[in-house]
Amino acid sequence: MNISVLIPAFNEEKKIGEVVRKLKAQGYGDVVVIDDGSEDKTGIVAEKEGAKALYHVINRGQGAALKTGIKYCLRNGADIIVTFDADDQHSPEEISKLVEPIINGETEICIGSRFLKNTTNAPFVRRLFLRGGALLLSRMYKLNLTDSHNGLRAISKSAAEKINLTADRMEHASEILEQISKKNISYKEIPVTIRYTEYSLNHGQKSWDAFRILYRMLFRRLIR
Quick one: angle between helices 124-141 and 207-223, nearest 10? Predict the structure, then answer.
């Protein structure tokens, strides 16, 4: 199967080259980086390392970047789309665990979980928000989840064609789960390792952002 690795990125010039190199070293030739209106050379660095870079003129958010990337990957023959973070928190070696159940026809989507085997060094407050969010989402959408917001996923072509993201920013993660539930898309959680570093903690989402994402998700739910 054709596997495309999709990386939404905003101002990740310092890390994106390393991330692309690691993916290439694991044999993933089709790496697509969405430069989401970066103010640095994120897209240029990605292209130099052999990735395909697509550009948003302005910063629209991770959800919008994923929507752009998924459309591109489907148009270019992807059978499986792996979403992957740009800050080096994810391990390319673990992609094979995510795509194997899809290749074997067991499920349509595999969602990474840092809590199935507790393979994370997440700060306590962030861990609390993520576990609480997973419990709430499980009840709302009748899904069996342990991790509410993990950017490492493998999505089959059939599932990607069913999912229509409308949330431009980080609420897209709950929107994906909502559509899994509503459209009866088969899914499976897979234990993965999430590495929190000084760079990712300083550069990425803050723990308070998880609360804001949860609030927006609930608001979207109420108005629908």
Answer: 20
**Please, which pLDDT band fits residue 117 given cuts at 50, 70 and 90?**
confident
Please check whether residue 66 is in contact with residue 34, taking contact to mean a CB–CB distance below 8 angstroms. yes
Question: Cα(49)–Cα(117) distance, rounded to whole angstroms?
Answer: 33
Q: Is 88 helix (H, G, I), strand (E, B) or coil?
A: coil
Q: What share of the chain is helix, strand, coil (3-state, %, to 5)?
A: 45, 15, 35
Half-sphere exposure of 158 (CA within 13 A, CB side): 12
Q: How is the chain split into domains, by residue range?
A: 3-223
At residue 117, φ and ψ (nearest 5 deg) are -120, 15
Over range 196-202, report the average pLDDT. Answer: 69
DSSP letter for 19, please. Answer: H
The reported pLDDT for the residue numbered 92 is: 97
Question: Which pTM value belongs to this model?
Answer: 0.86
Residue that is written with structure tokens 């640095």 in the block: 40
- Average pLDDT on 55-64 reads 96
Q: What is the CATH number of domain 3-223?
A: 3.90.550.10
Rg (CA), the chain: 16
For 205, phi then psi, to 5°, come to: -65, 145
Q: Which residue has the tokens 């609030």?
A: 215
